[in-house]
Amino acid sequence: MARNVFCQYFNKEGEGLDFQLYPGELGKRIFDNISKQAWAEWQKKQTMLINEKKLNMMNAEHRAFLEEQMAKFLFEGHQVDIEGYVPPKD
After folding, report:
1. What does the angle CA 66 – CA 71 – CA 37 come to, to the nearest 5 degrees?
2. What domain of life (predicted)?
3. Global pTM value
4. Which of 1, 11, 13, 64 lies at 20 to 30 Å from 74 by C-alpha?
């Protein structure tokens, strides 16, 4: 049976994820507050980001960058900028 959540991304009720797809506190927040539809939108953006910026998921900095983009996209309404990646300054 489907579970519904109030999706913070779409600001409306929607079908919730079947299980927690991301670890930790952020994963719980996503599970409780993000619909399947919003998660699918993020997955498309995430794939584009990984490809465009040539992110390596074995690299902790790249994972942190992606997590930050995910949180901004899902919870703060930020659109993902795919053009022109500027690497972080050391």
Report:
1. 100
2. Bacteria
3. 0.85
4. 1
Nearest in space to 50 (alpha carbons), one of 24, 20, 70: 70
Q: What is the CATH number of the domain that holds 29?
A: 1.10.3880.10
At 8, list the tokens. Answer: 């913070």
Q: Report yes or no on 89 lying in a domain.
A: no
Is the Cβ–Cβ distance between 4 and 16 less than 8 Å? yes
Contact 59, 65 (CB under 8 A): no
Q: Which region, left, alpha or beta, applies to residue 84 given φ > 0 means left and ψ of -120 to 50 means alpha?
A: left
